[in-house]
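Recap slide: Putative HNH nuclease YajD, sequence and predicted structure.
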Amino acid sequence: MFLFYNYLKQGRVIPLKKNCLNCGKEIKVKPSQFDRKKYCSRKCKGEYQTKNPAAFEHLKTQKIVRCDYCSKELLRKPSVLKKTKYSFCSQGCKAKFQRKYKEQLFAPIRKEKVLIECLECRKQFKVIPSRLSSVKYCSKECLGKANGRRAKELLQKRVMVICNNCPTVIFKKPSELTEHNFCSIECMSDYYAKSNMFAGENSGTWRGGDIDYYGPNWRAQRRKVRKRDNFTCQDCGITEKEYGKELSVHHIIPFRNFNGEWKKANEISNLITLCEYPCHRKRHSKMVDDIV
């Protein structure tokens, strides 16, 4: 049948009409799919194939084989036949076949075990050849005893040192010894706080210290920002009344970044109301992380 294809001005193809092969329902198809599309749905396709199985015999690739146990005929795909040597109609037939020919099927897989001696209790036991290099003990109990003995030997190699913050005696491996040794994180924190080892100019995040003066308009701008934000912390939502004291005002872009130009630094758009703890401190911590 010769078909005339009409095209819209936009370049789209006008769909053609034909009837479903199974239910006769009228369907619309693209001209390029006119010969290929025959059904209105997958359901209709399945129903038609069930009614007319002979029409699809030429599409089947399955081969007829026999069950290796009961000789029942069954269909198998060529790809499945390549993967397996035997074919079975059910799991029951497969299990019966394996029980019947157990020696022939599994004898090649089994390997003779080798007799070795446990390094802990000196008892002899058998292992497969592939595990000769890894197995040294006959049981978990023997392995545990050996590990305990090795741990004691390693402990004797440790060096005795005194905590730099308190008189506690600690034992450390030679590889773990440093200039400062501590018995706990609390002692380490206490020592660093007392000695100022990582404080001030010794800190990796040091940027010149706190700024005490923010310009002549700072107090006025501070009042305006607190009023604009309804005297409420903009991060956690707590009010000055709930907080119990006056809230802080924070520079979103740090004051020191303006190189002394206090008018630009103190613009209301660059200021925000925050509670001192924890929101204001969190903001400053994040600024330090961004710098690092």
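DSSP finds ten helices and ten strands in the chain.
The chain has five domains: 16-59, 63-106, 113-156, 159-199, 218-291.
(End of recap.)
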